[in-house]
Amino acid sequence: MEQMKKMPLEGIRVVELATVVAAPTASRVLCAFGAEVIKVETKIGDEMRRAGEFEMVVCEDDKNPLFTIQNSGKRLTSIDLKNPDGKAAFLKLLETADVFLTNVRLPSLGRLGLDYETLHKAYPGLVYAHFSGFGPKGPTPPSPALTARRSGCA
């Protein structure tokens, strides 16, 4: 019997705190190459669970094929990061991670203590990947980069 070949990212653990399209798709690619991806959702879940075929058209929960495609192969969990016990559980999860991948807006990450500077001090070996629709500097970084908003900026 032929042995299974090791995947390039096998043994890498990614903790994803992201919604909508770009960051979840990126972590899905990491998953396809063998990384273990743990997607952390809020208590109400990723909004893409309910988005329909057209942007933000309500869809029955967990019936969105785009959500399924972006998140297949991942381990999914829900953690309330505003609750002290939830925050502690999340930080414990980060202790086991190689990569933290997020697209949460920078001001929100700062309020949660999940900004780069804070996490780098606590977990110096953690790769911190932040997706921003407008980049880290200038007047628009704190703004969400949803399709409708971005198309008006063209």
Automatic annotation (TrEMBL):
GO terms for molecular function: catalytic activity. SUPFAM superfamilies: CoA-transferase family III (CaiB/BaiF). Pfam families: CoA_transf_3. This is L-carnitine dehydratase/bile acid-inducible protein F.
